[in-house]
Amino acid sequence: MSEYLGSGPAWSPSGRPAARHSSALGAAFLGGVTAAGLGLGALTVAVLLLWVAAPYPGTSLSRALHLAADLWLLAHGGGLVRDVPHSAVPAPVALTPLLLAVLPVWLLHRAARHTLATADDPGPAAGPAAPRTLLGALLTGYLLVAGAALGYGSVGRLAADPLSALLYVPGTAVATMAVTTWRVLGHGGAALLPEGVPRIVAKVPRRLLTALGGNRLAAARRAAGAGLVALLVGGALLTLVGLAVHGGRVRHDLLTLAPDWASRATVLLLCLLLLPNAAVWGAAYGLGPGFTLGAGSTIGPLGASAHPPVPRLPLLGGVPEVGPGTPLTWAVAVLPVAAGIWLARSVARMATDSGSAEEPWSKSWPAPWPWRRTAGVAAFAALLCGVGAAVLAGLAGGALGHGALAAFGPSGWRTGLAAAAWSALTGVPGALAVRSWQLRRARKAAPADGGNATTDGTGAEAATGGATTTGGGTTKGPKTPAAEEAAAEGEETAAGEATADGRAAADGRAAAAAAPGG
User: Fold this and answer.
1) Which of 57, 300, 359, 461 is the most buried (most CB within 10 A)?
2) CA angle, 340 as apex, 392 and 334 as ends, to 5°?
3) Are 346 and 430 members of one domain?
4) Which InterPro entries match (predicted)?
């Protein structure tokens, strides 16, 4: 009996780590259940409030609860299907309101961040569970609630599509957890990847890893984010301007679709949830490819073709009239130009943010970027901006039925290609121009040395800080920004080659240690 009592986790020191491990797994699992439950509960409360406020509700309480479950699955990207009168094939509904997706993504992000923070706490006596194990428990709890919601919401006139939900709900959850892990752990999150990923990375050419190393990727990502935000803000402004220009049609559609105040509030709430989608549509319109309102139609600045009848949603009232483009619609080209300038400004600021106004490019500050590096970072930022625009365009559209209603919204690859092209055409030369202007202004502000001020960084050796001989000794004068650029470029190349050689040597030592007899 004493041996049995001594082996329990409550008394044995060796059982305490296992108990803490189980407690961490349980907390992670409960965190996933809580994140899913809070998102589902918030949508349920909103749907029930609208159902109660309706003066003549045409649905029962059970249908309202089914709608809440369907909307929660739709927020993850899962499609819905609705029964169509006089048709044996249900019509798909795959247009996801982007603002609706913010709630479940944010809740899951907070749960994953808390779980990773718990994994980082080693505890007083033993280490915690591995982050990969805790994230797996979190995902299990989240998907358990998602499975229950899918089973409940897969019946009715408007039901969840099981195949779509099984694909997109886990995909959205895994993508959210991956981004959270990368933001919390940084490069340390690479240890959570499958074992085959480092082998694939090891096969990447060393020059490419060197080019993407250091702060280049962070600078390009920041500039791409600035350009993408500028595109979305411009798209939102285009949407609001279109609604203001066609205000009479928008009001008529609202009064026709919603005769009472409760239904108008519901329609306005739906328009609010679709406003980020409309911003992406407006950005695609400004970029040139435009969007479609049904198969075979195109709405762009060069003209709007005929499209099938669409739902009389007030948000669609701002769509341009069918016909060729006008100088007013061609003027929307200022949107991608402004986004490219914003991207160029971000790159140039990081390229020249290397000194103070009193003592630019001193020994305590790194040298400004060479022009090749500035152009490369701007081009890479344009590529990332195109990828982001393509992803958003793909998420902002979808199907609302069969046939002509099977395509709504912008094309992902066309929008991404146009965003990358516009950003590169305006961002790369713009970044070089702003960089040159800022360097010229810094040279004028730099103090002169002995009356010999440097004007262009390519003058004589004495003016550029070359070596001077005094009494048989050699003394180096102050370096100009041009000399600092050349030195920085050489040091960066040498550092990249040394890093790559060190990585190769480490891989060789690891392979030798893993060999038999090593």
Assistant:
1) 300
2) 90
3) yes
4) DUF6350
- Cα separation, 375 vs 123, whole angstroms: 48
| CB neighbour list of residue 414: distance below 8 Å, 6 or more residues apart | 284, 289
Quick one: which H or E segment has residue 476?
strand 473-476
Whole-number Å distance between alpha carbons of 360 and 350: 14
pTM of the entire structure? 0.77
Neighbours of 15 (CB within 10 A): 14
Q: Which domain holds residue 418?
A: 209-443
φ, ψ of residue 260 in degrees (nearest 5): -110, 170
Distances (CA, A) of 431 to 229, 425, 438: 18, 11, 11
pLDDT in tens, 386-428: 999 999 999 999 888 877 778 888 999 999 999 999 999 999 9
Domain end point (choices 400, 417, 443):
443
Q: What pLDDT was estimated at residue 438?
A: 84
**How many residues in total does the chain contain?**
518
Strands annotated E in 19-173: 80-82, 91-93, 158-160
Beta strand ranges found along 215-311 (DSSP E): 292-293, 299-300, 303-304
Residues 322, 411, single domain; the answer is: yes
Best CA proximity match to 34, nearest among 103, 108, 119, 106 = 108
Grouping H, G, I as helix, E, B as strand and the rest as coil, residue 231 is helix
Query: Any alpha helices (H) in 93-215, and if so which ranges?
Result: 102-120, 131-153, 162-185, 196-202, 206-212
Q: pLDDT (tens digit, 9 = 90+) per residue, 133-172?
A: 899 999 999 999 999 999 998 888 889 999 999 999 999 9
Q: At which of 154, 175, 203 does a domain end?
A: 203
Same domain, 223 and 117: no
Backbone angles phi, psi at 80, to 5 degrees: -120, 165
